[in-house]
Amino acid sequence: MALGLQLWRQVLAGLLLCVCVGRWAEAGKVLVVPMEGSHWLSMREAVQELHARGHQAVVLSPEVNVHIKAEDFFTMKTYAIPYTQDDFNYFLMGSFNMFFERVHFLTLFWKTMTATKNLSLAFERSCEALLYNKDLIRDLNASSFDVVLTDPVYPCGAVLAKYLSIPAVFFLRFLPCDLDVEGTACPNPFSYVPKLLTRNSDHMTFFQRVKNMLYPPSLKYLCHFSFTPYARMASELLQRDVSLGEIFGSASVWLFRGDFVMDYPRPIMPNMVFIGGFNCGNKKPLSQEFEAYVNASGEHGIVIFSLGSMVSEIPEQKAMEIADALGKIPQTVLWRYTGTPPPNLAKNTKLVKWLPQNDLLGHPKTRAFITHSGSHGVYEGICNGVPMVMMPLFGDQMDNAKRMETRGAGITLNVLEMSSGDLENALKAVINEKSYKENIMRLSRLHKDRPIEPLDLAVFWVEFVMRHKGASHLRPAAHDLTWYQYHSLDVIGFLLAVTLTVIFITFKACAFTFRKCFGKKERVKKSHKSKTH
Ligand SMILES: *[C@@H]1O[C@H](CO)[C@@H](O)[C@H](O)[C@H]1NC(C)=O
Ligand SMILES: *[C@@H]1O[C@H](CO)[C@@H](O)[C@H](O)[C@H]1NC(C)=O
Ligand SMILES: *[C@@H]1O[C@H](CO)[C@@H](O)[C@H](O)[C@H]1NC(C)=O
Question: Whose CA is nearest to atom 1 of ligand 1?
Fold first, then answer.
Protein backbone atom coordinates (compact mmCIF):
# COMPACT_ATOMS: atom_id res chain seq x y z
CA MET A 1 0.00 0.00 0.00
CA ALA A 2 2.78 2.40 1.07
CA LEU A 3 4.78 1.39 -1.97
CA GLY A 4 1.78 2.10 -4.17
CA LEU A 5 1.37 5.54 -2.65
CA GLN A 6 5.05 6.35 -3.14
CA LEU A 7 4.88 5.23 -6.75
CA TRP A 8 1.84 7.37 -7.31
CA ARG A 9 3.65 10.35 -5.81
CA GLN A 10 6.61 9.82 -8.11
CA VAL A 11 4.35 9.63 -11.14
CA LEU A 12 2.59 12.81 -10.06
CA ALA A 13 5.90 14.63 -9.48
CA GLY A 14 7.12 13.43 -12.87
CA LEU A 15 3.95 14.65 -14.53
CA LEU A 16 4.23 18.04 -12.86
CA LEU A 17 7.85 18.32 -13.91
CA CYS A 18 6.85 17.47 -17.46
CA VAL A 19 4.16 20.13 -17.50
CA CYS A 20 6.46 22.79 -16.05
CA VAL A 21 9.43 21.99 -18.25
CA GLY A 22 7.14 21.64 -21.23
CA ARG A 23 5.66 25.07 -20.71
CA TRP A 24 8.99 26.63 -19.91
CA ALA A 25 10.63 25.13 -22.97
CA GLU A 26 7.85 26.36 -25.21
CA ALA A 27 8.11 29.99 -24.17
CA GLY A 28 10.47 31.75 -26.54
CA LYS A 29 12.32 35.03 -26.72
CA VAL A 30 11.32 37.33 -29.55
CA LEU A 31 13.41 40.32 -30.59
CA VAL A 32 11.17 42.84 -32.33
CA VAL A 33 12.68 45.47 -34.64
CA PRO A 34 9.69 47.49 -35.81
CA MET A 35 9.19 50.10 -38.49
CA GLU A 36 8.08 53.45 -37.10
CA GLY A 37 4.66 54.95 -37.77
CA SER A 38 1.50 53.06 -38.62
CA HIS A 39 3.57 49.95 -39.41
CA TRP A 40 4.29 49.56 -35.71
CA LEU A 41 0.60 49.80 -34.82
CA SER A 42 0.04 46.67 -36.96
CA MET A 43 2.96 44.74 -35.57
CA ARG A 44 2.05 45.74 -32.03
CA GLU A 45 -1.01 43.48 -32.19
CA ALA A 46 1.12 40.49 -33.16
CA VAL A 47 3.53 41.25 -30.30
CA GLN A 48 0.61 41.45 -27.89
CA GLU A 49 -0.63 38.05 -29.02
CA LEU A 50 2.86 36.51 -28.71
CA HIS A 51 2.96 37.81 -25.15
CA ALA A 52 -0.46 36.33 -24.45
CA ARG A 53 0.91 32.91 -25.55
CA GLY A 54 3.66 33.13 -22.95
CA HIS A 55 6.53 34.41 -25.08
CA GLN A 56 8.84 37.18 -24.02
CA ALA A 57 9.17 40.10 -26.42
CA VAL A 58 11.86 42.78 -26.45
CA VAL A 59 11.10 45.75 -28.71
CA LEU A 60 14.10 47.72 -29.99
CA SER A 61 13.45 51.37 -30.69
CA PRO A 62 15.41 54.60 -30.97
CA GLU A 63 14.94 56.91 -27.96
CA VAL A 64 13.30 59.39 -30.27
CA ASN A 65 10.23 57.98 -32.00
CA VAL A 66 6.64 58.76 -32.87
CA HIS A 67 4.39 55.78 -32.15
CA ILE A 68 6.52 53.20 -30.33
CA LYS A 69 5.70 53.62 -26.65
CA ALA A 70 6.44 51.30 -23.72
CA GLU A 71 3.61 48.89 -22.83
CA ASP A 72 3.15 46.11 -20.33
CA PHE A 73 3.27 43.25 -22.84
CA PHE A 74 6.86 43.79 -23.94
CA THR A 75 10.21 45.04 -22.67
CA MET A 76 11.37 48.14 -24.45
CA LYS A 77 15.05 48.61 -25.17
CA THR A 78 16.03 52.02 -26.50
CA TYR A 79 19.21 53.42 -27.99
CA ALA A 80 20.37 56.98 -28.65
CA ILE A 81 20.19 58.48 -32.15
CA PRO A 82 21.61 61.78 -33.40
CA TYR A 83 18.18 63.39 -33.89
CA THR A 84 15.86 65.40 -31.71
CA GLN A 85 12.16 64.62 -31.40
CA ASP A 86 11.36 67.69 -33.50
CA ASP A 87 13.70 66.59 -36.32
CA PHE A 88 12.17 63.16 -36.31
CA ASN A 89 8.57 64.40 -36.26
CA TYR A 90 9.41 66.78 -39.06
CA PHE A 91 10.99 64.09 -41.23
CA LEU A 92 8.28 61.56 -40.57
CA MET A 93 5.12 63.62 -40.36
CA GLY A 94 6.10 66.98 -41.87
CA SER A 95 5.84 65.81 -45.44
CA PHE A 96 2.22 64.66 -45.34
CA ASN A 97 0.81 68.11 -46.01
CA MET A 98 2.29 68.08 -49.49
CA PHE A 99 -0.26 65.45 -50.53
CA PHE A 100 -2.99 68.06 -50.12
CA GLU A 101 -1.25 70.80 -52.07
CA ARG A 102 -2.02 71.35 -55.70
CA VAL A 103 1.43 71.74 -57.25
CA HIS A 104 3.07 70.95 -60.54
CA PHE A 105 3.90 67.30 -61.08
CA LEU A 106 7.64 68.00 -61.17
CA THR A 107 7.50 70.03 -57.95
CA LEU A 108 5.67 67.19 -56.24
CA PHE A 109 8.20 64.73 -57.61
CA TRP A 110 11.11 66.81 -56.37
CA LYS A 111 9.50 67.31 -52.94
CA THR A 112 8.74 63.60 -52.62
CA MET A 113 12.33 62.89 -53.58
CA THR A 114 13.88 65.19 -50.96
CA ALA A 115 11.41 64.12 -48.27
CA THR A 116 12.18 60.47 -48.99
CA LYS A 117 15.91 61.23 -48.94
CA ASN A 118 15.62 63.03 -45.61
CA LEU A 119 13.56 60.24 -44.12
CA SER A 120 15.85 57.51 -45.48
CA LEU A 121 18.87 59.29 -44.04
CA ALA A 122 17.18 59.54 -40.63
CA PHE A 123 16.49 55.79 -40.67
CA GLU A 124 20.01 55.03 -41.86
CA ARG A 125 21.52 57.05 -38.98
CA SER A 126 19.15 55.34 -36.58
CA CYS A 127 20.25 51.91 -37.81
CA GLU A 128 23.93 52.83 -37.54
CA ALA A 129 23.31 53.98 -33.98
CA LEU A 130 21.89 50.52 -33.27
CA LEU A 131 24.30 48.26 -35.15
CA TYR A 132 27.50 50.05 -34.07
CA ASN A 133 26.44 50.32 -30.42
CA LYS A 134 28.88 47.75 -28.99
CA ASP A 135 27.28 47.49 -25.54
CA LEU A 136 23.82 47.02 -26.95
CA ILE A 137 24.99 44.41 -29.46
CA ARG A 138 26.88 42.49 -26.77
CA ASP A 139 23.81 42.60 -24.57
CA LEU A 140 21.52 41.40 -27.38
CA ASN A 141 23.95 38.67 -28.38
CA ALA A 142 24.11 37.41 -24.79
CA SER A 143 20.30 37.32 -24.50
CA SER A 144 20.05 34.40 -26.98
CA PHE A 145 16.84 35.33 -28.77
CA ASP A 146 14.98 32.61 -30.68
CA VAL A 147 13.67 34.79 -33.47
CA VAL A 148 13.78 38.34 -34.83
CA LEU A 149 10.38 39.71 -35.85
CA THR A 150 10.87 42.70 -38.12
CA ASP A 151 9.34 44.83 -40.84
CA PRO A 152 11.86 44.70 -43.72
CA VAL A 153 10.75 48.10 -45.02
CA TYR A 154 13.25 49.17 -42.36
CA PRO A 155 15.93 46.57 -43.19
CA CYS A 156 17.87 47.21 -39.98
CA GLY A 157 16.17 44.30 -38.23
CA ALA A 158 17.06 41.96 -41.09
CA VAL A 159 20.71 43.04 -40.91
CA LEU A 160 20.72 42.66 -37.12
CA ALA A 161 19.27 39.14 -37.39
CA LYS A 162 22.01 38.20 -39.84
CA TYR A 163 24.70 39.75 -37.64
CA LEU A 164 23.51 37.88 -34.54
CA SER A 165 22.72 34.70 -36.53
CA ILE A 166 19.09 34.59 -35.36
CA PRO A 167 16.36 33.34 -37.72
CA ALA A 168 14.10 36.16 -38.93
CA VAL A 169 10.38 36.41 -39.60
CA PHE A 170 9.39 39.33 -41.83
CA PHE A 171 6.11 41.11 -41.17
CA LEU A 172 5.11 43.45 -43.99
CA ARG A 173 2.66 44.71 -46.55
CA PHE A 174 5.24 44.93 -49.36
CA LEU A 175 8.72 46.06 -50.28
CA PRO A 176 9.16 48.63 -53.05
CA CYS A 177 11.09 48.03 -56.29
CA ASP A 178 10.29 44.32 -56.27
CA LEU A 179 12.74 43.74 -53.42
CA ASP A 180 10.17 41.36 -51.92
CA VAL A 181 10.02 39.45 -55.20
CA GLU A 182 13.80 39.18 -55.10
CA GLY A 183 13.84 38.24 -51.42
CA THR A 184 11.26 35.47 -51.78
CA ALA A 185 12.53 34.34 -55.22
CA CYS A 186 8.87 34.18 -56.19
CA PRO A 187 7.86 34.17 -59.87
CA ASN A 188 6.02 37.38 -60.62
CA PRO A 189 4.89 37.67 -64.27
CA PHE A 190 4.54 41.24 -65.51
CA SER A 191 1.58 40.18 -67.60
CA TYR A 192 -0.97 39.72 -64.83
CA VAL A 193 0.63 40.62 -61.47
CA PRO A 194 0.18 44.39 -61.13
CA LYS A 195 3.29 46.13 -59.84
CA LEU A 196 3.13 48.27 -56.79
CA LEU A 197 2.14 51.93 -57.29
CA THR A 198 1.00 51.39 -60.90
CA ARG A 199 -2.71 51.34 -59.95
CA ASN A 200 -3.09 48.53 -62.46
CA SER A 201 -5.53 45.71 -61.82
CA ASP A 202 -4.78 42.11 -62.77
CA HIS A 203 -6.48 42.60 -66.14
CA MET A 204 -4.27 45.01 -68.04
CA THR A 205 -4.45 46.52 -71.50
CA PHE A 206 -1.35 46.45 -73.68
CA PHE A 207 -0.17 49.88 -72.52
CA GLN A 208 -0.89 49.06 -68.89
CA ARG A 209 1.35 46.04 -69.31
CA VAL A 210 4.02 48.31 -70.77
CA LYS A 211 3.67 50.53 -67.68
CA ASN A 212 3.77 47.45 -65.45
CA MET A 213 7.09 46.41 -66.94
CA LEU A 214 8.69 49.87 -66.87
CA TYR A 215 7.60 50.95 -63.40
CA PRO A 216 9.96 49.01 -61.14
CA PRO A 217 13.18 50.09 -62.94
CA SER A 218 12.08 53.74 -62.80
CA LEU A 219 11.71 53.52 -59.01
CA LYS A 220 15.11 51.91 -58.61
CA TYR A 221 16.80 55.25 -57.97
CA LEU A 222 14.62 55.93 -54.90
CA CYS A 223 15.24 52.42 -53.65
CA HIS A 224 18.93 52.74 -54.31
CA PHE A 225 19.48 55.47 -51.77
CA SER A 226 16.89 54.13 -49.34
CA PHE A 227 18.15 50.55 -49.20
CA THR A 228 21.78 50.18 -50.30
CA PRO A 229 23.15 51.70 -47.06
CA TYR A 230 21.95 48.53 -45.30
CA ALA A 231 23.97 46.33 -47.64
CA ARG A 232 26.99 48.49 -46.82
CA MET A 233 26.41 48.10 -43.06
CA ALA A 234 25.92 44.33 -43.38
CA SER A 235 29.10 44.04 -45.44
CA GLU A 236 31.08 46.02 -42.86
CA LEU A 237 29.78 44.00 -39.93
CA LEU A 238 30.08 40.57 -41.51
CA GLN A 239 33.35 41.51 -43.24
CA ARG A 240 32.38 40.15 -46.61
CA ASP A 241 30.30 41.33 -49.54
CA VAL A 242 26.62 41.15 -48.59
CA SER A 243 24.02 42.15 -51.20
CA LEU A 244 20.54 43.47 -50.50
CA GLY A 245 19.20 40.29 -52.10
CA GLU A 246 21.05 38.23 -49.53
CA ILE A 247 19.71 40.33 -46.64
CA PHE A 248 16.11 40.01 -47.83
CA GLY A 249 16.62 36.40 -48.89
CA SER A 250 17.59 35.44 -45.36
CA ALA A 251 14.05 35.52 -43.92
CA SER A 252 12.76 32.15 -42.72
CA VAL A 253 9.12 33.13 -43.18
CA TRP A 254 7.40 36.14 -44.75
CA LEU A 255 4.12 37.22 -43.14
CA PHE A 256 2.35 39.38 -45.71
CA ARG A 257 -0.47 41.65 -44.53
CA GLY A 258 -2.65 40.77 -47.50
CA ASP A 259 -4.85 37.99 -48.83
CA PHE A 260 -6.59 37.07 -52.08
CA VAL A 261 -9.84 38.80 -51.26
CA MET A 262 -8.18 42.20 -51.43
CA ASP A 263 -5.11 41.34 -53.54
CA TYR A 264 -5.20 39.57 -56.90
CA PRO A 265 -4.35 35.87 -57.23
CA ARG A 266 -0.68 35.34 -58.09
CA PRO A 267 2.12 32.79 -57.58
CA ILE A 268 3.41 32.34 -54.02
CA MET A 269 6.27 30.47 -52.35
CA PRO A 270 6.10 27.97 -49.46
CA ASN A 271 7.49 30.47 -46.95
CA MET A 272 5.02 33.22 -47.87
CA VAL A 273 2.08 33.39 -45.47
CA PHE A 274 -0.89 35.74 -45.86
CA ILE A 275 -2.32 37.30 -42.73
CA GLY A 276 -4.45 40.17 -44.09
CA GLY A 277 -7.22 41.06 -41.66
CA PHE A 278 -5.32 39.83 -38.57
CA ASN A 279 -6.19 43.16 -36.94
CA CYS A 280 -9.98 42.63 -37.07
CA GLY A 281 -10.43 39.90 -34.49
CA ASN A 282 -9.86 41.97 -31.40
CA LYS A 283 -13.27 43.58 -30.91
CA LYS A 284 -14.37 45.38 -27.74
CA PRO A 285 -17.72 46.97 -26.78
CA LEU A 286 -17.93 50.72 -27.44
CA SER A 287 -17.16 53.18 -24.67
CA GLN A 288 -19.97 55.35 -23.23
CA GLU A 289 -18.84 58.32 -25.35
CA PHE A 290 -19.04 56.49 -28.67
CA GLU A 291 -22.12 54.49 -27.79
CA ALA A 292 -23.89 57.76 -27.06
CA TYR A 293 -22.98 59.09 -30.54
CA VAL A 294 -24.21 55.89 -32.16
CA ASN A 295 -27.44 55.85 -30.15
CA ALA A 296 -28.16 59.47 -30.99
CA SER A 297 -27.69 58.92 -34.73
CA GLY A 298 -31.22 57.51 -35.16
CA GLU A 299 -32.34 55.50 -38.19
CA HIS A 300 -29.73 57.03 -40.53
CA GLY A 301 -26.78 55.63 -38.62
CA ILE A 302 -23.19 56.79 -38.69
CA VAL A 303 -20.25 57.31 -41.03
CA ILE A 304 -16.66 56.79 -39.82
CA PHE A 305 -13.96 59.08 -41.20
CA SER A 306 -10.25 58.64 -40.57
CA LEU A 307 -7.15 59.26 -42.68
CA GLY A 308 -5.08 56.91 -40.54
CA SER A 309 -2.70 57.28 -37.64
CA MET A 310 -0.25 59.49 -39.52
CA VAL A 311 -2.56 62.15 -40.99
CA SER A 312 -4.95 63.74 -38.51
CA GLU A 313 -4.85 67.32 -39.77
CA ILE A 314 -5.35 68.69 -43.25
CA PRO A 315 -5.06 72.19 -44.75
CA GLU A 316 -8.00 74.42 -43.85
CA GLN A 317 -9.32 74.92 -47.38
CA LYS A 318 -9.59 71.15 -47.91
CA ALA A 319 -11.04 70.61 -44.45
CA MET A 320 -13.78 73.15 -45.22
CA GLU A 321 -14.67 71.47 -48.50
CA ILE A 322 -14.91 68.14 -46.73
CA ALA A 323 -16.92 69.58 -43.83
CA ASP A 324 -19.35 71.06 -46.34
CA ALA A 325 -19.97 67.67 -47.97
CA LEU A 326 -20.33 65.89 -44.63
CA GLY A 327 -23.02 68.40 -43.58
CA LYS A 328 -25.16 67.39 -46.54
CA ILE A 329 -25.78 63.77 -45.57
CA PRO A 330 -28.34 62.69 -42.96
CA GLN A 331 -25.91 60.37 -41.13
CA THR A 332 -23.87 61.34 -38.07
CA VAL A 333 -20.18 61.56 -39.04
CA LEU A 334 -17.40 60.70 -36.59
CA TRP A 335 -14.24 62.32 -37.93
CA ARG A 336 -10.81 61.70 -36.45
CA TYR A 337 -9.32 65.17 -36.67
CA THR A 338 -6.90 67.03 -34.43
CA GLY A 339 -6.54 70.32 -36.33
CA THR A 340 -8.56 73.48 -35.71
CA PRO A 341 -12.23 72.68 -36.46
CA PRO A 342 -13.31 74.02 -39.86
CA PRO A 343 -15.65 77.02 -39.29
CA ASN A 344 -18.39 75.51 -41.47
CA LEU A 345 -18.59 72.23 -39.53
CA ALA A 346 -22.18 70.98 -39.57
CA LYS A 347 -24.13 69.72 -36.53
CA ASN A 348 -24.02 66.08 -37.68
CA THR A 349 -20.20 66.00 -37.74
CA LYS A 350 -18.35 65.19 -34.52
CA LEU A 351 -14.59 65.71 -34.39
CA VAL A 352 -12.72 63.25 -32.18
CA LYS A 353 -8.99 63.04 -31.45
CA TRP A 354 -9.03 59.27 -31.66
CA LEU A 355 -11.65 56.63 -32.45
CA PRO A 356 -11.96 52.87 -31.88
CA GLN A 357 -12.15 52.29 -35.63
CA ASN A 358 -12.62 48.53 -35.75
CA ASP A 359 -15.24 48.55 -32.97
CA LEU A 360 -17.19 51.36 -34.62
CA LEU A 361 -17.02 49.72 -38.07
CA GLY A 362 -18.41 46.57 -36.46
CA HIS A 363 -21.51 48.36 -35.22
CA PRO A 364 -24.64 47.53 -37.24
CA LYS A 365 -25.51 51.23 -37.50
CA THR A 366 -22.33 52.08 -39.43
CA ARG A 367 -23.22 52.88 -43.03
CA ALA A 368 -19.94 53.96 -44.64
CA PHE A 369 -16.22 54.38 -44.00
CA ILE A 370 -14.21 57.31 -45.37
CA THR A 371 -10.62 56.15 -45.39
CA HIS A 372 -7.16 56.88 -46.82
CA SER A 373 -7.24 53.16 -47.74
CA GLY A 374 -4.18 52.02 -45.84
CA SER A 375 -4.24 48.22 -45.74
CA HIS A 376 -5.09 48.17 -42.02
CA GLY A 377 -8.23 50.26 -42.52
CA VAL A 378 -9.31 48.53 -45.72
CA TYR A 379 -9.22 45.16 -43.93
CA GLU A 380 -11.31 46.55 -41.09
CA GLY A 381 -13.78 47.68 -43.74
CA ILE A 382 -13.78 44.22 -45.35
CA CYS A 383 -14.09 42.28 -42.08
CA ASN A 384 -17.01 44.38 -40.92
CA GLY A 385 -18.63 44.68 -44.35
CA VAL A 386 -18.71 48.49 -44.55
CA PRO A 387 -18.61 50.13 -48.03
CA MET A 388 -15.86 52.70 -48.42
CA VAL A 389 -15.17 56.12 -49.86
CA MET A 390 -11.42 56.14 -50.38
CA MET A 391 -9.01 59.10 -50.47
CA PRO A 392 -5.61 57.49 -51.03
CA LEU A 393 -2.65 59.71 -50.24
CA PHE A 394 0.62 57.78 -50.70
CA GLY A 395 2.35 54.40 -50.77
CA ASP A 396 0.20 51.36 -51.49
CA GLN A 397 -3.00 53.29 -50.73
CA MET A 398 -3.76 54.01 -54.40
CA ASP A 399 -3.38 50.32 -55.19
CA ASN A 400 -5.56 49.26 -52.26
CA ALA A 401 -8.25 51.70 -53.38
CA LYS A 402 -8.06 50.36 -56.92
CA ARG A 403 -8.53 46.80 -55.66
CA MET A 404 -11.64 47.71 -53.70
CA GLU A 405 -13.03 49.82 -56.51
CA THR A 406 -12.65 47.06 -59.12
CA ARG A 407 -14.62 44.81 -56.76
CA GLY A 408 -17.43 47.37 -56.55
CA ALA A 409 -16.99 47.78 -52.79
CA GLY A 410 -16.20 51.49 -52.76
CA ILE A 411 -15.51 54.71 -54.62
CA THR A 412 -12.08 56.34 -54.97
CA LEU A 413 -11.73 60.12 -54.87
CA ASN A 414 -8.68 62.18 -55.75
CA VAL A 415 -8.22 64.26 -52.64
CA LEU A 416 -6.63 67.10 -54.63
CA GLU A 417 -9.18 67.33 -57.37
CA MET A 418 -12.41 66.35 -55.65
CA SER A 419 -15.02 68.99 -54.98
CA SER A 420 -17.35 69.05 -52.04
CA GLY A 421 -20.08 67.75 -54.38
CA ASP A 422 -17.96 64.75 -55.41
CA LEU A 423 -17.58 63.65 -51.82
CA GLU A 424 -21.28 64.16 -51.11
CA ASN A 425 -22.27 62.11 -54.19
CA ALA A 426 -19.79 59.35 -53.40
CA LEU A 427 -21.09 59.07 -49.84
CA LYS A 428 -24.73 59.01 -50.97
CA ALA A 429 -23.88 56.37 -53.57
CA VAL A 430 -22.12 53.92 -51.24
CA ILE A 431 -24.79 54.38 -48.58
CA ASN A 432 -27.88 54.22 -50.78
CA GLU A 433 -26.97 52.02 -53.77
CA LYS A 434 -27.39 48.41 -52.70
CA SER A 435 -24.57 47.04 -54.89
CA TYR A 436 -21.79 48.54 -52.73
CA LYS A 437 -23.10 46.93 -49.58
CA GLU A 438 -23.72 43.61 -51.36
CA ASN A 439 -20.21 43.55 -52.83
CA ILE A 440 -18.44 44.36 -49.57
CA MET A 441 -20.56 41.74 -47.75
CA ARG A 442 -19.57 39.14 -50.36
CA LEU A 443 -15.88 40.03 -49.86
CA SER A 444 -16.40 39.91 -46.11
CA ARG A 445 -17.90 36.40 -46.27
CA LEU A 446 -15.05 35.18 -48.49
CA HIS A 447 -12.44 36.76 -46.27
CA LYS A 448 -13.83 35.22 -43.10
CA ASP A 449 -14.33 31.71 -44.53
CA ARG A 450 -10.98 30.17 -43.54
CA PRO A 451 -9.62 27.36 -41.38
CA ILE A 452 -7.58 29.55 -39.02
CA GLU A 453 -7.68 33.16 -37.87
CA PRO A 454 -4.89 35.24 -39.49
CA LEU A 455 -3.49 36.37 -36.13
CA ASP A 456 -3.24 32.73 -34.99
CA LEU A 457 -1.56 31.90 -38.29
CA ALA A 458 1.00 34.68 -37.78
CA VAL A 459 1.76 33.53 -34.24
CA PHE A 460 1.94 29.90 -35.38
CA TRP A 461 4.67 30.69 -37.91
CA VAL A 462 6.69 32.76 -35.45
CA GLU A 463 6.51 29.82 -33.01
CA PHE A 464 7.33 27.38 -35.80
CA VAL A 465 10.52 29.29 -36.61
CA MET A 466 11.43 29.38 -32.90
CA ARG A 467 10.83 25.63 -32.49
CA HIS A 468 12.83 24.60 -35.54
CA LYS A 469 15.44 27.39 -35.47
CA GLY A 470 14.41 28.65 -38.88
CA ALA A 471 12.60 27.09 -41.82
CA SER A 472 15.43 26.24 -44.18
CA HIS A 473 13.41 23.36 -45.67
CA LEU A 474 11.05 25.97 -47.16
CA ARG A 475 13.83 27.99 -48.73
CA PRO A 476 13.79 27.74 -52.51
CA ALA A 477 17.10 26.80 -54.13
CA ALA A 478 16.54 29.72 -56.48
CA HIS A 479 18.53 31.83 -53.99
CA ASP A 480 21.67 29.83 -54.77
CA LEU A 481 21.52 30.37 -58.52
CA THR A 482 22.93 33.20 -60.60
CA TRP A 483 20.45 35.16 -62.71
CA TYR A 484 21.42 33.34 -65.91
CA GLN A 485 21.12 29.95 -64.19
CA TYR A 486 17.73 30.96 -62.75
CA HIS A 487 16.41 31.79 -66.23
CA SER A 488 18.22 28.71 -67.61
CA LEU A 489 20.05 30.94 -70.06
CA ASP A 490 23.16 28.79 -69.76
CA VAL A 491 21.16 25.64 -70.57
CA ILE A 492 19.33 27.34 -73.43
CA GLY A 493 22.66 28.64 -74.70
CA PHE A 494 24.18 25.18 -74.48
CA LEU A 495 21.26 23.51 -76.25
CA LEU A 496 21.31 26.22 -78.88
CA ALA A 497 25.02 25.68 -79.41
CA VAL A 498 24.51 21.89 -79.70
CA THR A 499 21.63 22.36 -82.14
CA LEU A 500 23.59 24.83 -84.23
CA THR A 501 26.63 22.55 -84.24
CA VAL A 502 24.50 19.58 -85.34
CA ILE A 503 22.86 21.70 -88.06
CA PHE A 504 26.26 22.98 -89.15
CA ILE A 505 27.81 19.52 -89.27
CA THR A 506 24.81 18.07 -91.08
CA PHE A 507 24.91 20.92 -93.57
CA LYS A 508 28.63 20.51 -94.13
CA ALA A 509 28.24 16.75 -94.46
CA CYS A 510 25.42 17.18 -96.96
CA ALA A 511 27.37 19.74 -98.92
CA PHE A 512 30.35 17.40 -98.95
CA THR A 513 28.28 14.40 -100.04
CA PHE A 514 26.51 16.54 -102.62
CA ARG A 515 29.78 17.66 -104.06
CA LYS A 516 31.11 14.06 -104.05
CA CYS A 517 28.04 12.64 -105.82
CA PHE A 518 27.09 15.39 -108.21
CA GLY A 519 30.43 17.12 -108.52
CA LYS A 520 31.95 14.04 -110.32
CA LYS A 521 29.06 13.66 -112.71
CA GLU A 522 29.30 17.30 -113.57
CA ARG A 523 32.99 16.96 -114.17
CA VAL A 524 32.31 13.81 -116.17
CA LYS A 525 29.60 15.62 -118.10
CA LYS A 526 31.88 18.57 -118.59
CA SER A 527 34.74 16.43 -119.84
CA HIS A 528 32.27 14.53 -122.03
CA LYS A 529 30.99 17.81 -123.43
CA SER A 530 34.49 19.11 -124.06
CA LYS A 531 35.36 15.89 -125.88
CA THR A 532 32.39 16.20 -128.21
CA HIS A 533 33.47 19.67 -129.16
C1 LIG B 1 15.17 67.91 -45.91
O2 LIG B 1 16.12 68.28 -44.91
C3 LIG B 1 16.67 69.56 -45.08
C4 LIG B 1 17.74 69.79 -44.02
O5 LIG B 1 17.46 69.11 -42.84
C6 LIG B 1 15.56 70.63 -45.00
O7 LIG B 1 16.09 71.92 -45.20
C8 LIG B 1 14.52 70.31 -46.07
O9 LIG B 1 13.44 71.23 -45.95
C10 LIG B 1 14.02 68.91 -45.93
N11 LIG B 1 13.11 68.63 -47.03
C12 LIG B 1 11.93 68.02 -46.89
C13 LIG B 1 11.08 67.92 -48.11
O14 LIG B 1 11.56 67.53 -45.84
C1 LIG C 1 27.90 36.54 -30.20
O2 LIG C 1 28.42 35.62 -29.27
C3 LIG C 1 29.08 34.51 -29.86
C4 LIG C 1 29.44 33.52 -28.77
O5 LIG C 1 29.81 34.15 -27.62
C6 LIG C 1 30.29 35.00 -30.64
O7 LIG C 1 30.94 33.93 -31.25
C8 LIG C 1 29.81 35.98 -31.70
O9 LIG C 1 30.90 36.54 -32.39
C10 LIG C 1 29.00 37.10 -31.08
N11 LIG C 1 28.41 37.91 -32.14
C12 LIG C 1 28.48 39.23 -32.17
C13 LIG C 1 27.84 39.90 -33.31
O14 LIG C 1 29.02 39.88 -31.33
C1 LIG D 1 -27.57 52.98 -26.20
O2 LIG D 1 -28.74 52.20 -26.50
C3 LIG D 1 -28.72 50.92 -25.92
C4 LIG D 1 -29.94 50.15 -26.45
O5 LIG D 1 -31.06 50.95 -26.55
C6 LIG D 1 -28.72 51.05 -24.40
O7 LIG D 1 -28.73 49.77 -23.81
C8 LIG D 1 -27.49 51.83 -23.98
O9 LIG D 1 -27.52 52.06 -22.57
C10 LIG D 1 -27.42 53.17 -24.69
N11 LIG D 1 -26.16 53.77 -24.38
C12 LIG D 1 -25.97 55.07 -24.11
C13 LIG D 1 -24.60 55.51 -23.74
O14 LIG D 1 -26.87 55.86 -24.15
Answer: 118
Domain extents in the chain? 23-280+454-470, 288-447
> Which residue, among 263, 292, 262, 257, has the nearest Cα to 276 in the 3D structure?
257
* Nearest CA owner, ligand 1 atom 13: 115
Q: List the residue whose alpha carbon is closest to atom 12 of ligand 3.
A: 292
Cα–Cα distance, 421 to 42 (Å, whole number): 34
Which helix (H) or strand (E) segment holds residue 72: the answer is: none
CA of residue 288 to ligand 3 center, whole Å: 8
322-381 pLDDT per residue, tens: 999 999 999 999 999 988 899 999 999 999 998 999 999 999 999 999 999 999 999 999
Cα–Cα distance measured from residue 389 to residue 369, given in angstroms and rounded to the nearest whole number: 6
In a mutational test of the pocket of ligand 3, which residue from 290, 293, 295 has the highest number of ligand atoms less than 8 Å from its CB?
295
Same fold, 23-280+454-470 and 288-447: yes
For 402-426, write each residue's pLDDT tens digit.
Answer: 999 999 999 999 988 899 999 999 9
Q: Is pTM beyond 0.85 here?
A: yes
Name the fold adopted by 23-280+454-470: Rossmann fold (3.40.50)
Please give the full DSSP string across 124-154, using - where no structure is assigned.
Answer: HHHHHHHHT-HHHHHHHHHT--SEEEE-TTS
Atom of ligand 3 nearest to the CA of 288: 13
Q: Which ligand is nearest to the CA of 132?
A: 2
CA 95 to chain centre: 21
Is residue 237 in contact with ligand 2, taking CB distance under 6 Å? no
Residue 130 has pLDDT above 50, yes or no: yes
Which numbered atom of ligand 3 lies nearest the CA of 292? 13
